[in-house]
Amino acid sequence: MAISNNRLTKEQYIQNFSDIHPPFEHPEGAIIEANRCLNCYDAPCTKSCPTSIDVPLFIRQISTDNLKGSAKTILSSNIMGAACSKVCPVEKLCEGACVYNLLDEKPIEIAKLQRYSAEKAIINNWKLFERKQAIGKKVAIVGAGPAGLACAHALAKEGIDVTIFEKESKGGGLMTYGVAAYKVSDKLCDDEVDFILSIGGIEVKYNKTLGIDFSIADLQKQFDAVFLGIGVGIANTLNIPGEDLEGVEDAISFIYDIRTKNHNSIKIGDKVAVIGMGMTAIDAATQSKRLGAEEVIMIYRRTENEKPCTQVELDIAKLDGCSFIWLASPKEIRGENGKVKSIVCNKMELGEPDASGRKSPIETGETFEIEVDMVIKATGQMPYLDIINQSEVKNNKGKILIDKSNSTNLKGVFAGGDAVNGGKEVVDAVQAGKDAAKAILEYLI
Amino acid sequence: MANLQSNFLGIKSPNPFWLASAPPTDKKINVLRAFEAGWGGVVWKTLGSQIKNVSSRYSAIGYNGRRAVGFNNIELISDRPLEINLKEIIEVLKLFPDRAMVVSLMADNDRDSWHEMVKKVEDTGAHGIELNFGCPHGMVERGMGAAVGQDPEIAKMVVEWVMEVATIPIITKLTPNVHSVVPGAIAAIEGGTNGLSLINTIQSITGIDLDTLVPNPNVGGQSVYGGYCGPAVKPIALKFLTTLSQDEKINQVPISGIGGITTWKDAAEFMLLGASNVQVCTAAMVSGFKIITDLCDGLNNWMDEKGYKTIDDFIGLSVPKITKWEELDLNFHIVANINQDKCIHCGLCYIACEDTSHQAINIERGNPYNNYTINEPECVGCNLCQIVCPVTECITMVEQRKGDESINWIEFQKRGLKLNDH
Predict the structure, then answer these.
(1) What pLDDT, on the 0 to 100 scale, is given for residue A107?
(2) Lowest model confidence (mean pLDDT) among A355-359, B132-136, B309-313
(3) pLDDT (tens digit, 9 = 90+) per residue, B203-215?
(4) What is the ipTM of this complex?
(5) Nearest residue to A173 (alpha-carbon basis) of A149, A194, A144
(6) Which of A324, A419, B163, B345 has its CA at a distance of 20 to 30 angstroms from the CA of residue A284?
(7) B64, B348, B368: residue with CB nearest A41
(8) Which stretches does DSSP call E strand in A199-294?
(9) Domain extent listing, chain B
(10) Report field, pTM of the whole predicted structure over 0.90
(11) Would the CB atoms of B64 and A48 count as touching at under 8 Å?
(12) Fold annotation for B6-321
């Protein structure tokens, strides 16, 4: 067993990482599906969308061949509506609420329809939004992820001059660096950022890191207001022996590498254990398989019933040939010559519900050992505690505390997205950015 | 198994479905294919003086992603030489002697031309002749088609010319491009016609290409009014048909029903409103001749279910159920009821009633699903909520009479009863 790169042919890499969300190939497909929509009143789909996209309206606009109107309906509520249509867990949100479910019929393919018009707007750079004349106010935004970009767009539209500071060399945040490559293409991520910036009035300073290149206090001095959309980033550790062995990786870095490097340069083991069952764990497991791992085993301490990922996500992992060990928690990673050789797990059983409402896993005392040559940790992310603590921003273990008006304890400093909620969906971050923009406008004007 | 056999003025066919005079009946090859598929009869595409057709000829409108719910044509009568048509009619009659062969005619507007045409058709052995007084385009400008049908006096005169020589049944096809089809029908009967058929197509513009701004169909950058047909015209045709069925002078002759018939249900409706048989065109043009299978099968199953042994058992049964407004019972009252077990919370009933009707549906907001109930005192029983509800039998209309006695508007006025419920 060994960890190695370049396991597949060029064609196999292309095949394995191509878009799993193909658009409607022909207008007929979109129009037939759009016409299936009942156009509900006070629609459950809209109410289930964190950004409250007027779903019946944008679908009706597709059915009447008003694609620009449709794209504007989507993007007015969610400026990252194109990418969200690929990464949202829609079966828990809009599509899950579609009334067709109550008829035991297939829900409207809302995400696919949303891609149909929103993606066209992004690719063709339709001029859907117009910036008001500059009003002479400057806002700094830290982080060009979904929250920061949504906030920037909403502010720029109202004539605010926005400067975004981004630690990476590209915008998009999690979308560009943190989700499986087969869900959103790099091209779409780039195009989406360009589309958002095309409104004008937004300058992005790339490769500028908070805490290294500038401080919150610096921004407070130079700008009329500040928005912190710095997300979360550091992978949780397992706190078990053997984590420093060669072959132990965290899912965040693993996915980051896949999104930023040539796929054939990414090393993967023959037999990979992925710890965790969230969306990021699934992305790590499926992409391990798609990089050519012979066997991928997902290890989760509860049962399938308590899984944090959606059924759709789990099905992707199943179809990719991943296997699953439920009710198991890593106890030790064992090595040989400094390299991973096996993982030892505690067998678990379910006890009383915990704070999350799910039944809590309890050790049974029994253990088992499986041979692996690579372990990917995907058990959640931590906020940037050290960076936050360099400032006076009030926080809870790194999660920034805000009030009802999205304001931190510092005057003129607002925050939102994963940095506040600890890590939710992209669509939640977009809404947080919108909310903060509204609050900032009230603060400034 | 019910008996679907039809006898229209002595013209027998194994089922009541004829293909209407139109492109599907223009040539031997088409008609043979139709008879092989099972059609009961045809009305051969109109024969007359030589004409020239244009390209393109058809246009259509779609609705909610469904194509051709309304169809339009600017094609004229048969553009093939008369001799070929007559020869082919003879050949088809030999191959399918059990099917109805009716020939549509539109001669030049003089007695001799009509006499000559009638005789030529009779020589083929055809079973009947349909007089085309309805074509709304192209021929009108030459004093034919709808130009005849729209003027009862001319219509009567032409029918009289035909009846002077005809020895086989004559059916007069009426145009709907008039205020009422009744005067034309009476004129045709006075002229001696043996039967009627309706409707021909309705003058229309189906739409405009919003890039070129040329209406459809586009003939080198220009268009003309066409004849409208297809499912969209069915309700209009049913109304025209019923005005004939209710007229004591007219309903003495059999009527062949035409206008958007697509399914066996449509056919049953035409026959319930007095049509002795039906003619189909657009549905076959859009879907092919094979639709005859379900037309026959569906009608047969319905007849079996209802106990009708022959089509004569139900022809006209719904005619007496169409009355005058002032004879409707004002004490009849229904209110909507929502079956909460079937409701999918789409809110379509609520918004329809709230925005455009009587604010008779209560809403209890929820996340993500609202609950809807009927506010009975406000419900006028208009049916709108039931019409928009996407779930079968979720909303039903429940009878809640305002009084035991049946009272119509005439009686209501006579007694000086109170107006305005609200």
Answers:
(1) 98
(2) B132-136
(3) 999 999 999 999 9
(4) 0.91
(5) A144
(6) A419
(7) B348
(8) 202-205, 225-228, 232-235, 248-250, 271-275
(9) 6-321, 325-414
(10) yes
(11) no
(12) TIM Barrel (3.20.20)
Specify the DSSP element, H or E, that contains B47.
strand B41-48
Nearest to B177 by CA among B216, B229, B129, B222: B229
Interface contact A42, partner B, CB < 8 A: yes
Q: Identify the pLDDT of residue A357.
A: 86
Residue B135 among the catalytic residues:
yes
Tell me if the domain spanning B325-414 has CATH number 3.30.70.20. yes
The region, left, alpha or beta by phi > 0 then psi within -120 to 50, assigned to residue B256 is beta
- Residue A117: name the closest of A77, A78, A69, A154 by CA: A69
| Contact of A247 with A373, CB cutoff 8 Å | yes
Rounded CA gap, B187 and B249, in Å?
Answer: 11
B347–A contact, CB cutoff 8 A: yes
Closest to B340 (Cα-Cα) out of B256, B417, B396: B396
Which residues, in sequence order, are CB contacts of A117 under 8 Å at separation 6+? Answer: A58, A61, A62, A67, A70, A71, A74
Pairing assessment for the beta strands B255-258 and B11-13 based on DSSP bridges = unpaired
CA gap B15, B98 in Å, rounded = 11
- Ranges A20-34, A55-69, A388-402: which has the least confidence: A20-34
The per-residue pLDDT for B421 is 60
A55-63 vs A67-77: helix axis angle to the nearest 10? 160
Residue listed under structure tokens 């189906």: B206
In a mutagenesis test of the B interface, which of A61, A93, A99 is the best target, namely the one with the most B β-carbons within 10 Å?
A99
Burial (CB count <10 Å: 0-12, 13-18, 19+), residue B194: buried
- One-letter amino acid at B180 equals S
Average pLDDT, chain B: 96
Strand-pair category, A381-383 with A271-275: unpaired
The tokens 């007694």 sit on which residue?
A: B415
Write out chain B residues lying below 8 Å of A50, CB-based: none
C-alpha–C-alpha distance, residues B30 and B24, integer Å? 6
pLDDT at B147: 82
pLDDT tens for B330-388 read: 999 999 999 999 999 999 999 999 999 999 999 999 999 999 999 999 999 999 999 99
Dihedral pair phi/psi, residue A86, rounded to 5°? -105, -30
Alpha-carbon distance of B220 to B203, in angstroms, equals 21
